[in-house]
Amino acid sequence: MTARTQTGSKVxxxxxxxxxxxxxxxxxxxxxxxxSDLYAQDMLWGAARRAPVAHAGVTHLDVAPALAxxxxxxxxxxxxxxxxRFQGQIITDQPVLADGTIRYWGEVVAIVAADDxxxxxxxxxxxxxxxxxxxxxxxxDEALARDEVLRKAVSYRGDRxxxxxxxxxxxxxxxxxxxxxxxxxxxxxVPDGAGGVDVYGPTQWTHVDHEQLVDCxxxxxxxxxxxxxGLGGAFGAREDLSLQTHLCLLAxxxxxxxxxxxxxxxxxxxxxxxxxxxxYYRHEADRAGNLIRVDxxxxxxxxxxxxxxxxxxxxxxxxxxxxxxxxxxxVDGYALRTNNPPSGAMRGFGAVQTGFAVxxxxxxxxxxxxxxxxxxxxxxxxxPGDVLATTGQLITEPLPTREVIESVRAMPLPDDETSxxxxxxxxxxxxxxxxxxxxxxxxxxxxxxxxxFSEGFDDYAEARITLTPVGLDIHTAAIEVGQxxxxxxxxxxxxxxxxEDVRVIFDDTSQIGSAGSTSxxxxxxxxxxxxxxxxxxxxxxxxxxxxxxxLSSEGMWRGSQLVASLPEACLDRDFSAHxxxxxxxxxxxxxxxxxxLHVDFAVSAHRAVVDVDPVLGLVRxxxxxxxxxxxxxxxxxxVIGQIEGGTMQGIGLAVMEELIVDHGIVRNPNFTDYLxxxxxxxxxxxxxxxxxxxxxxxxxxxxxxxxxxISSTPAVVAAIRNATGKALTRVPVRPEDIAL
Amino acid sequence: MNVRLIVNGEVLNAEVTTPISLLKVLRDELHLLGTKxxxxxxxCGSCSVLLDGDLVCSCLVxxxxxxxxxxxxxxxxxxxxELHPLQQALIDHGGVQCGFCTPGFVVAGADLLERNPSPTSxxxxxxxxxNLCRCTGYGGIERAIQSLIEVEER
Lengths: 740, 154
Fold this sequence. Notes:
The structure holds two protein chains of two kinds.
Chain A: H1 24-29, E1 44-50, E2 56-62, H2 64-67, E3 72-76, E4 86-87, E5 94-95, E6 101-102, E7 108-114, H3 117-126, E8 128-133, H4 140-145, E9 149-157, E10 166-174, E11 186-191, E12 197-200, H5 206-217, E13 224-227, H6 244-254, E14 258-261, H7 264-270, E15 273-274, E16 277-285, E17 291-303, H8 309-318, E18 328-337, E19 343-344, H9 351-369, H10 373-380, H11 401-410, E20 439-451, E21 460-467, E22 472-476, H12 485-497, E23 502-506, H13 523-546, E24 550-551, E25 555-558, E26 561-565, H14 566-572, E27 576-582, E28 600-613, E29 618-629, H15 636-655, E30 661-662, E31 665-666, E32 685-690, H16 707-724, E33 730-731, H17 735-739
Parallel strand pairs in A: 1-14, 10-33, 12-13, 15-19, 17-18, 22-23, 29-32
Antiparallel strand pairs in A: 1-7, 2-6, 2-8, 3-7, 4-5, 9-18, 10-16, 11-12, 11-14, 16-17, 20-28, 21-22, 21-27, 24-25, 25-26, 28-29, 30-31
Helix pairs in contact in A: 5-6, 8-9, 9-10, 9-16, 12-13, 15-16
Chain B: E1 2-7, E2 10-15, H1 22-29, E3 48-51, E4 54-57, E5 70-72, H2 85-92, H3 102-115, H4 121-127, H5 139-153
Parallel strand pairs in B: 1-5
Antiparallel strand pairs in B: 1-2, 3-4, 3-5
Helix pairs in contact in B: 2-5
């Protein structure tokens, strides 16, 4: 692997190296500050009163008993809201506090600030609330029949009269998945004494939080400052506001800092989920194995409020056919309003749901044709110069669909398992399954998704780099959620400048412009791209000012002569470079969903090997092999970490993760009943990195971190089908789906 | 009541008025924030500590039951400013991402290596199956522990 650098090719810890995280030491010693670790002088504790019902009218609401309690400083309801009463990052349709109607389980009716957490919790429960139950709308087909549509997105391309000889029709479902980041929601709001407020809480995009907070608090933009905090993971759960508005309202009302820390059950109520989906598919092919036509109707359960559903459904439609050539495509996608918990972003963002359905369909069509499922995919795979089946846009950047499939196929399969160690059998140490009862299966799937924002969104990221006496400070509003962006931004700046001592300063919203959301696999290319440009600009300015031709940790060089050390340069004047970096742009869809909707794409492939106990319906994932399209691995260790972690979230959706929502009520809001993969569920994962450099990512890098989640789920299910012969059209696959 | 704990070798006292977990006392009363609160059901291991030498989820231990007993938290794993080898290995092998589960893995992993310096892969995975990680998929954590075993064998 070569570092493609100009001046800084010899710098240590530059791009292409597996540089360890700069925040590693505080994290392993327990000193890293997360949102739940923040305290302030003279602080109050906040608590929320949440509705235990999915749909109801509020017939009685009396906060007097809570206000009468000693140590209670404020109780706020909808009537106390000072300005705009609704929030939402795309459509502002979510009441900041319940507006007289409860539309989902866990909706916040009132908020309290008190001297200590116990008093706050007791006061929240002392509020008198009575409900008149209403029928909850919880089924997506019924929501469509009632026209409860948050957004309809379509892809119509080709000729509706054309049909193929081989037809495969099926309906697929994906259940609600929770991001389940280990860190629960927590935060603190601190009034500034002049009418403004500083808020510290879980976020993936401080500037979009800021816009909503300004409106809902009735303050001027400069009076609200949104600060990033240490986050215990995100995976989409922090894209929408959770407790920030409530914290600010209580802090401004009481004039004191207010802190909230949620437990796990409240966390399940407080953040958006991955959309449950029902997907009706019909694939048609000719006898030669060419995909001729795809019809699909996609119903995504948006829950009670819109959140990011309008963007999620567009993505579901965009990737509904996979990375395959198909001349006739007719997809209707709907994000539907129901009384289930609000859905929003989770890693893969719509492409996970359709990825499961379309890859399942590809296997079925191949079987119907009598073709090898990988040969069928290879025959229809798209790459540069082809068009995207759903939008008609030409693929201009590298897209190694064939390479990821062929790489995974070439990886060695594990030997047949003979071990009788219970840890290596389905059912594990429950000792349910003898080796003789085990059936092995192998399955493949491909993942496909856009990178960065689509549909004409003005997508940019700012970065500012300042020369200091010891090195460089990178200022950014991008969010380090754990993914390792902090390391990659430092590596980029080092490789451009040759200066080794680089640190990242995570600014609040008053210090720098937006970095855009830390999602959509976009920050490596967007904030990474901004850092690349800012570093080049700073370097060129230093060259010009000092007449230098090289830069290093020592300072500016002209030939072999050191012209100025870094401390000397800083004494001379301030050197700083500020960049707003945009990608090449995208178009809004026309009425048929056609156009250059997306900027760029990535593909992945997974092969799963599973052992199944068909009698009890138990599955053990034995081995995962994957090939990933990463452009250029800026930090190979970090890339592997994203692949392994993303793959595990996909395995979770395949075989265990399901938020059970019964008539709108979440029945398993805890880690005893919402099952996450453990160490014993984790198979060995071998990854091949396909490095075809992107024309616009820093040093050729591409975003990719959602892809491992997209292709792992269908690969695992394909492997279970291979072992059992069952159709398995729903994830997670439950024991009864296999055994009964 | 007064609860006296010997935390990382230091005697600390907390005044406790209600039934309260050891985790709550460590975090809210003693402000030892390295021990993390993520599920409060003993499912995730983020609050792992050693209580009188035994690995426990501090969310499941009543503070009163820890009275007069030694407690080792993540803050007590490094000694004299030197990281425990597992702490360094987790950094070097990508065993840390968001880091929220990391204190629990440090305590549980150090305990495993103390009891069994050369665990097999199965033993590692079983011993740490009470600690959830949502970011890494466990690969980096297993490689970190494996790296220490190889060192000891040389």
